[in-house]
UniProtKB/TrEMBL annotation:
It holds the Pfam family DUF6445. This is Phytanoyl-CoA dioxygenase (PhyH). InterPro entries: DUF6445.
Length: 234
């Protein structure tokens, strides 16, 4: 099948070790040669809707499988060394979405107002591809102040959820997550830049840094359009 995107042969990956746990995060600018085709697909063929049983504050649509292959094929082998992955594990894409932040902040569920983790599983990762050309909020990675946790491993889930639940009962958060709040501290902030990709473990606490005035929109032409590829080595 014809490629949706071609990776820029001159990419220069930046590896940032964040927080006290020194988690590696991959940032690559100008990742593909041209985003026109994938953006046209999002605007003309993608069917956006609210995903059931999800706390994502907006709408999503399925990504073309060929685009996912185009994005992962050139880079996934380098992740084995960076994240010390067992060599017998194989890459398996999980959820693959276009995403648009579209929920007004006064309609958010309290759990959408705090940073989250995708899963405690250690070899599960998220890749974000920023697609829109306009100025938008980026992505932040967090530490939970009470526990000191940055990554929520299986051994930490119970303690973290107990502490976070108690905090929410005392004073439920509202609005989109902020860089600094009473219970969470940002350990790294990644700016939104068109055609930038970011890769990080799914068990690190994270959130979009959402500007309610600029970022909340159902329109893939002008909204905070991202491609989100969740994948696991198992």
């Amino acid at each position: 099948m014809e490629a949706f995107v071609k990776v820029n042969p001159h990419i220069m990956p930046q590896i940032v070790h964040v927080g006290s746990e020194q988690t590696p995060v991959v940032i690559i600018d100008d990742f593909v040669e041209d985003t026109t085709k994938i953006k046209e697909y999002a605007c003309t063929k993608a069917e956006f809707s609210v995903v059931e049983n999800s706390y994502y504050p907006g709408v999503r649509a399925q990504l073309p499988k060929q685009y996912v292959i185009d994005m992962l094929q050139p880079i996934y082998k380098q992740l084995y060394r960076l994240y010390q992955l067992p060599k017998h594990l194989r890459l398996r894409p999980q959820d693959i979405f276009f995403s648009l932040v579209a929920t007004p902040q006064n309609e958010l569920h309290p759990l959408q107002s705090i940073p989250h983790f995708d899963t405690p599983r250690p070899f599960y990762f998220a890749l974000i591809h920023y697609l829109d050309d306009n100025e938008h909020g980026g992505t932040a990675l967090f530490k939970h102040k009470e526990t000191g946790f940055e990554r929520i491993s299986p051994e930490r889930v119970e303690d973290y959820l107990s502490s976070a639940s108690e905090e929410q009962q005392q004073h439920a958060a509202s609005g989109y997550p902020r860089i600094d709040s009473p219970h969470y501290q940002a350990i790294h902030h990644i700016d939104y830049k068109p055609n930038r990709i970011v890769i990080y473990p799914g068990n690190i606490l994270h959130s979009g840094v959402i500007n309610p005035e600029k970022d909340v929109s159902h329109d893939p032409i002008s909204g905070r359009l991202t491609a989100n590829i969740f994948f696991e080595f198992n």
